[in-house]
Amino acid sequence: MKFLHTSDWHIGRTINGFSLLEEQKYAFKQILSLAKEYEVDGIIIAGDLYDRAVPSADSVITFNQMLREMNIIEKFPIYAISGNHDGAKRLNYAKEWLDFNQLHLRTSLEEAFIPIETEQVQLFLLPFFDPMDARIYFSSQGLDEEKAKEIKTIDEAMTLVISEMQTHFDKNKKQILVTHFAVSPHKEEINLTSETTSKVGGLATLNVIQFEAFDYVALGHIHTRFASPSEKVQYSGSPVKFNTKEAKTQKGVFIVETQQDSVSSEFIPLQIQTDLVVIEEEWDTLISREFYENQPIHQAWFAITIKNFDRAKLAGRNLRAQLQKVYGTIVELDYKFKNISSVKSKTQNIESLDNIGILSNFYEVTTGETLSGLQQEIIENTFKQIEGEK
Question: Where are the alpha helices (DSSP H) in 202-288?
Answer without folding.
Answer: 283-286
